[in-house]
Each structure stands twice: as C-alpha cells, then as structure tokens.
Amino acid sequence: MHINCKGKLIDLSSPKIMGILNVTPDSFYDGNTLKSDKDILSRTEKMLKDGATFIDVGGYSSKPNAKHISEKEELQRALPVIKLLNEEFPESFISIDTFRSKVAYETVQKGACLVNDISAGSLDKNMFKTIAKLQVPYIIMHMQGTPQDMQNQPSYDNITKEITFYFSEKISQLRKLQINDIIIDVGFGFGKTIEQNYTLLNQLVLFKSLEVPILSGISRKSMLYKLLNTSPEKALNATTVANTIALMNGSSILRVHDVKEAYEAIKIVQALKR
C-alpha cells in the first residue's frame, strides 16, 4: 500500500509515524508549549530525527469542549508554521490537521502535502471538492458530533459495524471524485466512551476490509489515562502499549506526541511479523 506525497511514493506496508505539532494554546497535552519559531523548529527536528515520516500541524484544538475559533485565526496559527517547516525541512512531509477546505487549500499552497480531517468532510461541504482539486492524500476520521459536544452522550448499537459503514460511504464518494490516496482513522476519543474506544482498538483489524491504510491516534488520550487514574503527562507507557496493539491489529500510521517510543514499537512488531 502506497500513498503519493509531493510526487514521492511512501510505502505503508511498513508502518510510519506522524508526529503531532500543535500550534494551539489549548491542546489537551502540549497546548501553548511552542512559543517561538525556535521551539517549533527544535520540536520538528527532534521528531524527524526520531523517525517521523509526517509532521501534522494543527491550528484548531479539537479536544472535548474545545473553544471554537474562526477560520481566520486558524490560518494565522497554521500558515506561518507550514511555511517555516517547508523552508527549513523541504524534504519532510507536512500534514495539515483541519476540517476547513479554505485552510486545507491555503496550507497546501504553502507546502503541506496531506490533509488530516477530523470530520471527513462533514463540517465543510466544499472539502471533498477541494481535495479532488489538490490531489493530496486525505485522512478521514470518524467523529460523532463536533469537538464541542462529541463527548456528551456517545451512543452506538454496534460501533464497529456503524463506523465501517460510515467509511465505506465516504470512500465511495471520494472515489467518484477520483481521489486515490485515502487513509481512515476510527477517531479514538472523538464521540466514544472508554469502553467503545477499547472495542475499536480490539476490532481494528476488521477495518482492513475497506482496503485503505489505517491511521491510529491514541497518543496520551483519556481512554488511557482515565482508565489508569493518571494524567496525559504520565501516559507515555500506556500510549506505547496501545500503539503496539494498534500495530498488531493492522495500523499503518501512528499519530503520536512521542516519536522515538512509537518507532521502537514499530521495530519490535516488525521483528515479530518477520
């Protein structure tokens, strides 16, 4: 399984890492930690050295009950960072984490080469057409509701079946627009209870039936630290355990805060599979 980024084929038959670069003041784990260009470049350089293939830049916090910000503010946060990274690390593959087509379009013009959409086009009717025009790999995530209300009362009859059906419909719409490189993300923590998250992690392999790469974003999330009565800061070991399970169950990309540990998990799982 390959995706095409900037004219280069990236082979996802060996799992890859997407390093998280949040340029938001209120992200649940690393909000407001990157205060200058120097901080941003230093964090990015470390993630690339530790083994990240992709750097995912986010200017809109999507944690539960996150503050809604304007498109203008999201662009003011994300655009300068995309430009900076593209100039300093021209060989890197930068992803923009956005559900807005205008943000996707403008950041791809400045060097982003993937779009990571938590709403899979549901929050912006122009997103699918924009991706078709841009012809970049597109990550579609499942979320019940919006970041502001998703954790109010998530409810499913059969979560794996419902999300599989959701993705099959989205993939069909995207294929009709000649969008080739589609990646799915089941959306751990986005409109799911702790129990529902673990059902998805356990049954992740079933999503391989959709024949597209699977991205897993579990890093330091509440499904880990709440289960263990701890905090995001103390959830690195739990993240590594969950990432390992995701890899064993078919994940092709791990979206993480801690690249080195994810890289080690991939090495061990690959050795097992060999």
Keywords for this structure?
single chain; alpha/beta; two-stranded antiparallel sheet; 10 strands; about 40% helix; about 15% strand
Total domain count: 1
Low-pLDDT ranges: none
Structural class: alpha/beta
Number of helices: 9
CATH fold topology: TIM Barrel
CATH architecture: Alpha-Beta Barrel
What is the CATH superfamily classification? Dihydropteroate synthase-like
Percentage of residues in DSSP E strands: 15-25%
Query: Could you give the order of strands across the largest sheet?
Result: 3-4-5-6-7-8-9-10
Describe it for me?
By secondary structure, the chain is of the alpha/beta class. It has a single domain (2-273), classed as Dihydropteroate synthase-like (TIM Barrel), CATH 3.20.20.20. Helices cover 39% and strands 17% of the residues. It has nine helices and ten strands. It has helices spanning 37-50, 71-88, 101-109, 127-134, 159-176, 194-202, 222-225, 236-248, 259-273; strands spanning 2-5, 8-11, 16-22, 54-58, 93-97, 112-117, 138-141, 182-185, 214-216, 253-256. An eight-stranded parallel barrel has the order 3-4-5-6-7-8-9-10, surrounded by six helices. It is globular and about 40 Å long.
